Amino acid sequence: MKIIKKKEELIQELAVAKLQRPNSLTSTKYGDKVVYDCGCKSKQHRINDPSNRVFAIAMPVKFAIECENGFLSFIQVKGFFKQTVNTFWTCKSKLFMDALKQLGLA
Question: What is the distance, to the nearest Å, from the Cα of residue 60 to the centroid of all Cα atoms in its chain?
Fold first, then answer.
């Protein structure tokens, strides 16, 4: 997992991620054992935690999820019967919003 601390680096990652708004098919209804790594003090969160906010999605089965501690992580869920999660990168939510503002998306 990459921890991003610079806005320029995050903007490059956003260009590659091709994020979209969540839609009516967006679901985080996974089992309690499906967790992702986060850059916050908690280190890991359940994907189905109701305090998480899905900020954006990408294909296939990728989410930009904001945790209650002010961090946003870009993750991918893989597997049908047994799911695993890969965290591509994480950053502070404020940095994410600043990057979106600079791109004219917020």
Answer: 13
pLDDT band at 42 (very low <50, low <70, confident <90, very high): confident
The tens digit of pLDDT for each residue in 78-99 reads 998 899 999 999 999 999 999 9
Asked if 49 and 31 count as a contact pair (C-beta separation under 8 A), the reply is no
DSSP for residue 96 = H
- Residue 78 CA to residue 86 CA, distance in Å, equals 8
Contact 101, 7 (CB under 8 A): no
Contact at 8 Å (CB) between 56 and 21?
yes
Q: Contacts from 26-33 at CB under 8 Å and sequence distance 24+?
A: 26/54, 26/57, 26/63, 28/52, 28/54, 28/63, 28/65, 30/77, 30/83, 31/83
Please tell me the pTM assigned to this model. Answer: 0.91
Tell whether the model's pLDDT for residue 10 goes beyond 80. Answer: yes
